[in-house]
Amino acid sequence: MEVKGRRALVTGGGGGIGGEICRLLGAAGHDVLVADLSEEAAAAVADRVGGTPIGLDVTDEASVQAATTQLAETWGPAEILVNAAGWDRFLPFLETDGGFCDKVLAVNLAGPIRMCRAVLPGMVEARWGRIVNIASDAGRVGSSLEAVYSGAKGGLIAFTKTIAREFARSGVTANSVCPGVTNTPLLDDIKAENPVAEKVLAAVERSTPMGRIGTPADIAPAVAFLASEEAGFITGQTLSVSGGLTMA
């Protein structure tokens, strides 16, 4: 089937995984809006992949509305939404505080919910849409030092399944892609802030059947497929991309 270009909105598009997703969606012929909290990062990726940059804070309702309205007025409503914005730090649960928990939940769970609420009306009207939420294997099986993050991503997986059920007959699919440990700038920040992280991540790498941690280039193809025309009969699914670290 010939790929038809769609309007794709990628949050966290200036990051490692988000940037690679933007590149593949652009290569597939889609018009890509690279949305990121850092306008500089968004601009750098957009310049590299031929997309359009925009500053967007997924934790702020006004920012989300402004970005999605700008998209709709300039191009038309988003047809593909990829929620790739994410944030975490490695901490034992009892060392976390309310502010930390609020931020993790705001970025990783409330953010995607807010984005879906903003774009779904246009998808329903068009009778076509693809939502791909970047969850995590931490949300599937738990992860030491990531209790709140695991909870947020587990909630995102459940939210995605429910959206899939509610909107299936409107021509909209919703799926979760769950990376395992992936080599990104966020991971570098985590390692720099917590010496224990190096040992934990080394153990994960040894336990991974493929013998290495993932890269953004490993994750993006799964997202590009689920955003494609060909994936129209796939919805409510949770796909792990972890080199076999987790199975089933």
Order of helices and strands: EHEHEHEHEHHEHHHE
Q: Which stretches are poorly predicted, pLDDT < 50 over at least 5 residues?
A: none
CATH architecture: 3-Layer(aba) Sandwich
CATH topology: Rossmann fold
Number of strands: 7
Structural class: alpha/beta
Query: What integer is the average pLDDT?
Result: 94
Q: Order of strands across the widest beta sheet?
A: 3-2-1-4-5-6-7
Using only C-alpha atoms, the radius of gyration works out to: 17 Å
- Can you identify the CATH superfamily? NAD(P)-binding Rossmann-like Domain
* Helix run count: 9
Note the gap between the termini.
30 Å
Shape: globular
Beta-strand content: 5-15%
3D structure, described in words:
The protein is an alpha/beta fold and 248 residues long. It has a single domain, classed as Rossmann fold (3-Layer(aba) Sandwich). 50% of the residues lie in helices and 15% in strands. The chain has 9 helices and 7 strands. The protein has a 7-stranded parallel beta sheet, sandwiched between helices. Helix 3 runs parallel beside helix 4. It is globular. The two termini are 30 Å apart. The model has no long low-confidence stretch (mean pLDDT 94).
Q: What's this entry about, in short?
A:
The protein is of the alpha/beta class and 248 residues long. It has helices at residues 16-27, 39-49, 61-74, 98-126, 138-141, 147-167, 185-193, 195-207, 216-226; strands at 7-11, 31-36, 52-55, 80-83, 129-134, 172-179, 238-241. Helices cover 50% and strands 15% of the residues.
Which key terms come to mind for this protein?
248 residues; alpha/beta; Rossmann fold; seven-stranded parallel sheet; 9 helices
